[in-house]
Amino acid sequence: MAELPNTEERLTPDTFLRGLWEENPVFVMLLGMCPVLAVTSTTVNALAMGLATTFVLVCSSLLVSLLRNWIPKQVRIASYIVIIATFVTIVDYAIQAISLELYAALGAFIQLIVANCVILGRAEAYASKQKLMTTLVNSLGMGAGFTLALLSLGTVREILGNGTILGISLFPADFQPWIVMILPPGGFFVLGAWLLLFNWLRLRKERKATGPIGVTADAR
């Protein structure tokens, strides 16, 4: 995992892309595991939680970056929590107004976005040290990475557990769903499989990057 910058960094494409791969909140840093396992029984739930978390992450990070020179260091964590809680309340009321069924499915995990380590960690370690535009791009990348991870779990669990995706049937009528996939153990099984695949791809990429160097060294 790349180290977070202690000083202002230059805006590059990597500022966004790190959240998708190198610093993916779920598959690399293993943060926010509670909603990842609890609300990914369907694709819709996973997408809704991912977008809600991304909204809170982006808005709170922008406000922290904007106010970073005015927030006293002694109360910075408390200030960040108040900022995050404000946007979580907005999301909570918005989802409740849009769909009561979705609101009931997500349950208390909407309010628990306040305690999501991804959001508070980015506010403290990144947004409080970076300019507004850099923070915006980075938080969008982290939110996209978190949403992608939730969708990866939600899609697999819904397909295997219900035989559907977004409520659309994919298999013949005699298909027997793997009920375990929409139960709590299914979340652990699918997460473990994705972590195995993600780490294999990462190690494969690292071996390709270091392979030619090793060959050259041996040749010498």
UniProtKB/TrEMBL annotation:
Its recorded name reads Ion-translocating oxidoreductase complex subunit E
Source organism (scientific name): Thiorhodococcus mannitoliphagus
Q: Per the record's keyword annotation, is Transmembrane included, yes or no?
A: yes
Look up keyword Chloroplast and say if it applies: no
Q: What does this protein do?
A: Part of a membrane-bound complex that couples electron transfer with translocation of ions across the membrane.
The gene from which this protein is expressed is rnfE
Q: What is its EC number?
A: 7.-.-.-
Gene Ontology biological process: electron transport chain
For this protein, the parts annotated as crossing the membrane are 26-44, 50-70, 77-96, 102-120, 132-155, 175-198
